[in-house]
Write a structure and sequence with these properties.
Length: 736
């Protein structure tokens, strides 16, 4: 049985590694072969193929439900029902729409929409909206999150921005929204949003600083309803029945164990219903159901079997769950605890078991965090040592009981006030811990080094006295394996995918330079969210130079976050920036790093900010790259006057391919063989302009576009081609 379940689980999990999905014909062939093999010695292989076929069929169904390419980027009027709890942000409101319909064509069953400065929305309302729709996509950078996969796993068929709308019908079934408004109205020591997250699973109201504190201390799971919360509520009911039975207070005619399991499951389902029954909650309830069934009938089969059964059950219900890091983290955490606490000789006191559980989880999840690209919280064992019992045994029971007693004047509010006060104390302590030990974003590891870390974690977690256990600590040094150095005389260039903005990393053998830092608008700072984590994952621990072409927010917005997050030896800029001491860009300045020559140029007489862009020319073994910022036609003419017909091999498309740049004379004189465009999909500026693209093609330039290919990589000096991250094929990735 275990072998078959394990093979089935592997087949279901293989989905996330497929470059393409098999056709319907191949699926039928595989399915027939799998069924036939079930009656032979190859039956485990048949189970594997059955799982793979089911996962592929489900994934194809989700892909077929995505927005039609003909509607991508178009604004259409549609009608639909608001699903779940809309999240209010600093910019507006974000919500999901179900049952969407439009006369322009068929729409996906579920849309994720943003309405900047939009009115308050409530769950269950029917709206008529003018929406600019987009096919599911997201920024794609090396070793970064894949938003397209996350949207597919949640079966979001399209995203969009609301331009206008009107409500068609009153709220139907919006009791969760009403409860949220009631919770936000109580006095909870300023922690009303945290109570809403804990009770209803809606973390949209949490402040950005609170999320950063939770992430830095590895305690996000405490404010996002997960298996821990579901298990706690179920455990409280189970423990109550078991205690009454032990003390002789449970009715003798009722068998206590079935009742304990039944009431525990009922409590978990009620809490899950209260929390909106999202995918993580469904996963937790399925896991709990399997565990309770094992407790009733199958304890003799060992503790790993219910975990395996729960994994298979979750993946059979939603095969796309394997695309989300949450599934890997939750099941890995339980497996690690079973591995470390099961079948050990001797006993531990409760406080010993609790303290050991924290460092066991920290070490055991390290390979999973590395594989999923998530930050590693160095303070998580200490923070969770306090935070988990604080929330589980004090805050959560008070919050749920206070919510239940809200109809009784005074009682519910008092309990929620106390729960909020306890949460406020917790956040203050966690903020201190986060400042002491912030989260660590480790450099991405090659496969062999990651495998060493995985083996090392298993060895370290072996019981004391087992041979080779000490070797695990030595093998953990693979975490700091040096990256493969750039060859002398060459420079590795990464044009990051930052949407409508620019950020380019250049690395020689011993030096790093960042040209522009990505866009920022309000709290939406891609320098902090994208550029800085990507630099760390690429192994950049410091910058020798940060060069900001000019002061526009799409180029300079992230500079502050980069400066705060990394040591920067020198900063240059084409224009002054508020809050940063930039040295002025001086035309003619040159330097050499590791055999690579760099030179600056700036049109001092430029009338606009774009034309005052600081331009960087990089030359490696005769191959040239020009980073042109946002310079326009006037600056291009001035460049040609100063440099003549200097051949450029690779050109960063000036001003994102705007019609005011990339003039015929400039392209003809520099004669590049390729152009690198950085822009956002379906951007409102129309970049790159059709005339500019046609000009590039007429001159035979290879066009590389971050909106289509993701982040772009080029090794200057190797005379090679440009590679896009999206070239690493996955079945859910598509171009424009």
């Amino acid at each position: 049985m275990r072998t078959g379940m394990f093979a089935l689980a592997l087949g279901l999990l293989c989905l996330g590694f497929l470059p393409v999905l098999p056709s319907v014909g191949w699926l039928l062939v595989l399915l027939l072969g799998a069924v036939a093999s079930l009656f032979t010695r190859l039956w485990p292989l048949g189970c594997f193929v059955l799982g793979l076929c089911w996962a592929c069929w489900s994934a194809q169904h989700a892909l077929d439900d995505r927005l039609a390419p003909g509607l991508d980027g178009r604004t259409v009027w549609l009608e639909g029902r608001v699903a779940g709890l809309p999240s209010r942000t600093a910019q507006g409101v974000r919500f999901e729409l179900e049952q969407a319909a439009s006369r322009r064509g068929a729409l996906p069953r579920r849309l994720q929409l943003s309405w900047y400065d939009g009115p308050p929305l409530r769950a269950g309302e029917h709206w008529r909206l003018a929406v600019t729709l987009q096919r599911p996509a997201g920024l794609l950078n090396p070793h970064g999150p894949d938003r397209e996969a996350q949207l597919l796993a949640r079966r979001i068929g399209a995203t969009g921005t609301v331009k206008a709308g009107q409500v068609l019908s009153a709220v139907a079934g919006g009791w969760r929204d009403e409860l949220r408004q009631r919770l936000l109205a109580v006095d909870a020591n300023g922690r009303q949003a945290a109570l809403v997250a804990l009770v209803l699973g809606d973390g949209g109201g949490l402040a950005r600083e609170d999320w950063q504190t939770l992430q830095a201390t590895g305690t996000v799971h405490l404010l996002v309803i997960s298996g821990q919360h579901i298990g706690l509520v179920a455990g409280l009911l189970y423990g109550l029945v078991a205690g009454l039975a032990r003390w002789g207070l449970w009715p003798a005619r009722l068998p206590w164990l079935p009742w304990a399991c039944g009431l525990a499951m009922a409590a978990a389902l009620a809490y899950g219903w209260l929390a909106g029954a999202g995918v993580p909650v469904q996963r937790a309830c399925l896991m709990l159901a399997v565990v309770l069934l094992w407790r009733l009938r199958f304890r003799h089969l060992g503790a790993m079997l219910p975990l395996l059964l729960a994994l298979v059950a979750v993946l059979l219900v939603e095969p796309l769950a394997g695309l989300l890091p949450g599934l890997w983290l939750s099941f890995s955490a339980v497996a690690i605890l079973i591995y470390c606490f099961g079948a050990r000789l001797g006993g531990w006191r409760p406080w010993q078991a609790w303290t050991r559980a924290q460092w066991v989880i920290a070490i055991g999840l390290l390979p999973v965090l590395l594989a999923t690209g998530l930050p590693v919280s160095l303070s998580a064992p200490l923070a969770n040592l306090l935070a988990v019992p604080w929330v589980s045994l004090a805050v959560l029971p008070l919050a749920l009981l206070g919510t239940l007693l809200l109809p009784l004047p005074g009682f519910g509010e008092a309990l929620l006030w106390l729960a909020g006060g306890l949460l406020d104390v917790l956040f203050r302590v966690l903020a201190v811990v986060a400042g002491w030990r912030p989260a660590w974003v480790p450099p991405a590891l090659p496969l062999w080094a990651w495998a060493l870390v995985g083996v090392a974690a298993l060895l370290v977690l072996l019981p004391r006295g087992v041979p080779m256990r000490g070797l695990g600590g030595v093998m953990l040094l693979a975490l700091w394996v040096p990256r493969e150095p750039v060859a002398a005389g060459q420079v590795e260039v990464w044009q990051l995918d930052v949407g409508q903005g620019l950020a380019v990393l250049l690395r020689t053998r011993h030096h790093s330079l960042l040209y522009d830092a990505g866009p920022a608008k309000g709290e939406y700072d891609l320098g902090e969210r994208v550029v800085l984590p990507t630099l760390r994952k690429l192994g950049v621990g410091s910058l020798d130079l940060m060069l900001i072409s000019h002061a526009h927010a799409d180029h300079a917005g992230g500079a502050g976050a980069i400066h705060r997050g990394l040591p920067v030896r020198r900063m240059l800029g084409g224009e002054a920036l508020e809050g940063l001491a930039l040295q002025p860009c001086v035309s003619g300045e040159q330097w050499e790093w590791d055999g690579v020559r760099f030179s600056l140029w700036r049109w001092a007489e430029g009338q606009s900010s774009n034309d005052r862009s600081c331009v960087l020319l990089v030359e490696a073994q005769g191959e040239r790259l020009l980073l042109a910022g946002d310079m326009e036609a006037g600056a291009e003419r001035s460049w040609l006057a100063a440099h003549g017909a200097t051949r450029i091999d690779w050109l960063q498309s000036p001003h994102h391919g705007s019609r005011s740049s990339s003039t015929e004379a400039f392209i003809r004189a520099t004669a590049p063989r390729g152009v690198l465009i950085s822009r956002g999909r379906n951007n409102s500026f129309g970049h790159p302009h059709a005339q500019v693209v046609e000009r590039y093609r007429r001159h035979g330039l290879a066009i590389h576009d971050t909106a289509v290919e993701g982040a772009l990589r080029l090794v200057l000096g190797a005379q090679g081609a440009v590679e896009g991250v999206r070239g690493q094929r996955r079945f859910w990735r598509g171009g424009e």
